[in-house]
Write a structure and sequence with these properties.
By secondary structure, the chain is mainly α. It has a two-stranded antiparallel ribbon. Strand 2 and strand 3 form a beta hairpin. The two termini are 41 Å apart.
């Protein structure tokens, strides 16, 4: 549920800030007073034949010069050097807006219309990404210092309260207040997913970490798709904002049923509570854990934690700069950071661009979110069969090629089915690559610096996410530009992924020297597969436990 909340929080802006079609109201259009109450929300968006034949585009606020026939009927329109723009703030009734998708969106509420203010919609979307950047470090610190449950509750409150309050930001300072709250929502949103991810992984054995680490992203995709359903029902952005965010407060109830991470308890010396958690988990699963097994394992974990603390305090401390000391580690680190940049750009770029690929906005949005689920299943089934390197390269190239083709077809009339299919394939590749880079980075970098290395890649990924959203500004020059550029970058990343060594079957490196030696003796080809039953592999861990339980 919390993972779903993180997914929902990311994409609500797709509809609350939906950018509708609009055009300037001309002297030949019926006046608003025909509705008696000057209600612009009842006006139906349409483009008269004479205006359409004149070749005037949507999203243009310039007032055209009208040509009339002898009877006074409008017959054509054109822009001239003297054409002035309607001021969307002072002349809100000077535009005719398409309200078939959203009857009232944030774009209209804050006048993010016309050439002078159109880019603000993208800037406010980037504020969420900046919040994610800050939140990934802030919530990580709170999680390590005060516990996973505490961090999770703080994240839920931040995303729910700040998101809901954004709906009431209006009047003087309302726009700025909304921007600040969107930044806070980003902190809470990344906290919901990140802490939830850590909790889930720390509650299972090491053989299940990859399975759970990828599977936890499935409800994230379902939360994204839920926004599309809610948008069908609530077409006023303020109502949708409250409906989407406020119910998330109910997740606070998880505090009373969710156990704290046993690994975190051990690391922080809370042994009594850790033992209690283990016994409760065993009882829930209908199993018995001998006391000596609990005590031996806890003592081993404590000793391991103490050794790590002692090693970090004595001797030369390893820093992120050590990854750039040799040419080999330098190229691997930069390449992995580029993979994160590319996959995040395509993931968020395709998600927010889904509304412009076809006219059926709701269906296309829901499909482009749900396509993530089979991509995660694809990773779960094949990562330990085919390997990390070939799958990452394949998914990046798939995403890149599909984006390039969609970009070239975007201005073509018709072919909507093909464009949707290719955009779904592109999102499939981007989502699968997103799941892979987490595992791959953890396996490539050594233990002494793994957290810092993954944190560095995550920082670059946030920049990639911001870039993916900012590419939308290029639509002014060429409509397909955002998707086309994303495709080119993903294609290059797919080729660069082939330069990595394969980590499948390799133990995690402890030192930088061990990390540098990965792949030296592993000559596994990119087309080589190892076939086995994933179910049988995951049952091994359960058999080990059963054998230990039968010991006297």
């Amino acid at each position: 549920l919390v993972s779903a909340a993180g997914g929902l929080a990311v994409v609500v802006y797709s509809f609350t800030a939906f950018n509708p079609k609009y055009r300037v109201r001309t002297e030949c259009d019926p006046p608003l007073d025909r509705f008696n109450k000057n209600d612009r929300f009842k006006e139906v968006y349409s483009v008269p034949s004479w205006l359409e034949e004149s070749g005037l585009k949507d999203h243009d606020c310039r007032i055209p010069e009208i040509t009339k026939d002898a009877a006074g009927n409008c017959i054509s329109a054109k822009y001239t050097n003297e054409s002035k723009e309607v001021d969307p703030i002072q002349q809100k009734d000077g535009l005719i807006i398409d309200r078939s998708i959203m009857t009232y969106s944030l774009v209209e509420s804050y006048s993010f219309l016309c050439s002078g203010r159109m880019g603000l919609r993208t800037i406010y979307n980037v504020l969420y990404m900046i919040g994610m950047l800050v939140g990934s470090y802030l919530m990580g610190y709170i999680s390590d210092a005060f516990g996973r449950k505490t961090a999770l509750m703080i994240a839920i409150v931040l995303v729910s309260v700040s998101g809901s309050l954004g709906a009431v930001c209006e009047g003087m300072g309302g726009q700025e207040a909304y921007g600040f709250l969107r930044f806070i929502t980003g902190i809470g949103g990344i906290g919901c997913f990140m802490v939830c991810f850590v909790l889930a992984v720390e509650h299972v054995g090491y053989k299940f970490t990859m399975l759970v680490g990828i599977a936890i992203e499935i409800p994230f995709a379902m939360g994204e798709a839920l926004v599309g359903v809610e948008a069908m029902l609530f077409k006023n952005w303020r109502v949708l904002q409250v409906v989407a965010y406020l119910p998330l407060l109910a997740l606070m109830g998880l505090y009373f049923v969710l156990p704290e991470s046993t690994r975190w308890l051990i690391a922080n010396g809370k042994i009594k509570q850790a033992k209690k958690n283990i016994r409760e988990a065993a009882e829930m699963n209908g199993r018995r854990v001998p006391d000596y097994l609990i005590n031996d394992n806890l003592e081993l974990e404590q000793e391991k934690e103490q050794n790590q603390k002692d090693s970090s305090q004595g001797g030369k401390k390893t820093t992120i700069l050590d990854l750039f000391n040799t040419k080999l580690m330098f190229t691997r680190t930069i390449n992995m950071a580029f993979q994160w940049f590319s996959v995040t750009m395509c993931y968020y770029g395709l998600t927010f661009a889904s509304s412009s690929i076809s006219d059926d906005v709701y269906t296309n949005f829901i499909l482009i979110c749900l396509i993530e689920i089979p991509s995660y299943i694809f990773c779960i089934l094949l990562m330990d069969m085919w390997g990390r390197r070939p799958i990452l390269s394949f998914c990046q190239l798939l995403s890149g090629v599909c984006c390039v083709i969609v970009g070239l077809l975007l201005e073509s009339e018709g072919l909507s089915g093909l464009k949707i299919f290719l955009s779904l394939l592109g999102k499939f590749g981007a989502a699968a690559a997103f799941a892979i880079v987490y595992v791959y980075a953890a396996e490539l970098f050594p233990t002494v610096i793994r957290n810092q290395a993954v944190g560095f890649c995550s920082l670059v990924a946030r920049i990639g996410g911001m870039s993916g959203l900012l590419l939308e500004l290029l639509q002014v020059f060429w409509k397909p530009a955002p998707v086309f550029v994303m495709g080119c970058i993903a294609s290059v990343a797919g080729l660069f992924a082939l330069l990595f060594p394969e980590t499948l079957g390799q133990r995690l490196p402890e030192t930088i020297q061990e990390a540098a030696s990965i792949g030296k003796y592993n000559k596994r080809g990119i087309c080589e597969c190892t076939f086995f039953s994933p179910l049988a592999m995951y049952k091994e861990d359960l058999r080990d436990v059963e054998e230990k339980e039968s010991e006297p």
